Amino acid sequence: MPAATGRIYLDHNATSVVLPAARQAVLDAMDMPGNPSSVHAEGRAAKSVLEKARDAVAALCGVSPDGVVFTSGATEAASTALSPLWLRDGAEWRAEALAVLETDHPCLRTGGRFDADKVTRLPVDAEGVVLVEALAEWLDALAGRPAILAVSWANGESGVIQPLARIRAALDGHDVRLVADAVQLAGRRPLELREAGIDAAVLSAHKFGGPKGVGALVLADENTRPFALFTGGGQERGRRGGTESLPLIAGFGAAALNAASSAGDGWPHVRALRDELEAVLRDMAPEISIMGAGADRLPNTISFTHPAMRAETVQIAFDLQGIAVSAGSACSSGKVGASNVLKAMAQAGYPADPALGALRISLGPDATRADIEEFITVARRVLARLGRAQGRSDAA
């Protein structure tokens, strides 16, 4: 949490706190006058900073630096990846269909550059995990045609991690490229794109301690890639035109170095705090349901529903008590309409009214027991009111 504010920040899935090393890298790069594309000494110095950041992101993902394309963020990276036109070993490869998950982040779920009639949304089960039989049906319907499957590797609202090994196995024998939104997984679990069978992944720096406004499209094989979304002056090896934002990229690189060193252990200290908090919540309010409780989840995430809880109202109650949590993803908060994640899970049997929403708690790497204890103190007051409301409803 930012100690100077006196508040407790538990919304790291929306954006994490900028690391000191990332902040310093941004400031240092802002003092560099050179354009990375210039050949003079100043330009070469800027280019060196750019390539060091590229190396760090590549190491985080287990790929060659040639496979890292810097973008303005995950949304741009996803729009680039979800293109019907790719290059594969120098030849044009054209995808005739796209499948996404009903629970995917909007940057995938809306289909990128595919026409709407080419996009299939695959259902999930009550835990938020893709129905492999639905995936098999989609693959059968392709009848050998080339296509793309895009999945949010870890869901930002529920924390549910998709079973990439099972998904990749289902794709064997099919001409299907696999695109993964790895935004929430970066820094929390190891990212090895080749080992996972992923062709392209999407990253965003601000989810793991970097600055906002910078991300990357990461390719497992630089010879298999989508056509550029922006052409411009040929920067990023012709894969993304426009002068690179050196300060933001430098901060991204610093955050990637930190993430690579901290992701391997899976955040056991954060998981322990998360599990402890989850047990207390269940004890104080047996009516709550935890999204994805039976699935593999991010170690820092709890999203829960309660039959008497309107998530936005409870979020405000916590905010007034100095605690930042979320009523869904930051991309949908404040907008009219139920979460597509909660809606898809409810349709499969998750016991909740999507219109009421879910409250999400997402811990950061510096989460402390004191933070959790303060949250529990406030939650006892808030959830007690929910219990009374539920009692009045049952009596009626």
Could you walk me through the main structural features you see in this protein, from its secondary elements to its overall organization?
This protein is of the alpha/beta class. Helices cover 37% and strands 15% of the residues. The protein has helices at residues 20-30, 41-61, 74-81, 106-109, 132-142, 164-171, 193-196, 246-262, 268-284, 311-320, 340-347, 369-395, and strands at 8-9, 68-71, 85-88, 91-94, 97-101, 119-122, 147-152, 176-181, 200-204, 215-219, 224-226, 289-290, 301-305, 323-324, 359-362. The strands form 4 sheets. A 7-stranded mixed β-sheet has the order 2-10-9-8-7-5-6, sandwiched between helices. A 3-stranded antiparallel β-sheet has the order 4-3-11, with no helix packed on it. Strand 7 (147-152), helix 6 (164-171) and strand 8 form a beta-alpha-beta unit. Helix 5 packs parallel to helix 6 (164-171) and helix 9 packs parallel to helix 12. The longest helix has 27 residues, at 369-395. It starts with 7 loop residues before the first strand and ends with a helix.
Topology:
Elements: E1 8-9, H1 20-30, H2 41-61, E2 68-71, H3 74-81, E3 85-88, E4 91-94, E5 97-101, H4 106-109, E6 119-122, H5 132-142, E7 147-152, H6 164-171, E8 176-181, H7 193-196, E9 200-204, E10 215-219, E11 224-226, H8 246-262, H9 268-284, E12 289-290, E13 301-305, H10 311-320, E14 323-324, H11 340-347, E15 359-362, H12 369-395
Helix pairs in contact: 1-8, 2-8, 5-6, 9-12
